[in-house]
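Board notes (copied after class):
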Amino acid sequence: MRSKILFLIITAFLALTACDSNRVYDTYKSVPNQWHKDSIIQFKFQAPDSINKYNLFVNLRNNNNYPFNNLYLIVEMDFPNGKVIKDTLQYKMAKPNGELLGTGFSDIKESKLWYKEDVIFNESGDYHIKIQHAMRKNGKVSGVVDLEGITDVGFRMEHTVLNQ
């Protein structure tokens, strides 16, 4: 009986994690110990096509050492023709009581943060995504040099629901 229950649990887990038909691109890069303010995390990908729309996300993994309840990022998209779009984005990372948002059962939480919606890649070639933190303490002009608690930074591209 016990082995049947274990088999059902493993089967359910695999079924839930294996079905990710929306994913087009999804990768992470580790942040060793602390994320330095001048450290830019970069991703390079080919335009999947020039017709369909895609949703773009910044994915983060953070732990209990993350000292803030929000996060500011500078995200830059470089197009094959040289055009650059740079955005400053703010995300909520914790509840008012300090409990981290995101998914996960341990002290590591994973957050899927919206970057851009319904993007059409009109140009063929290589696109580059560059992500840098822009955190500051309240009342301070200079930024946080070494941001603690971020363990991995990722970039994800998905088909929009209408593309399926």
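Comment from the instructor: Residues 11-17 have pLDDT under 50 and may be disordered. The first strand starts at residue 23 and ends at 30.
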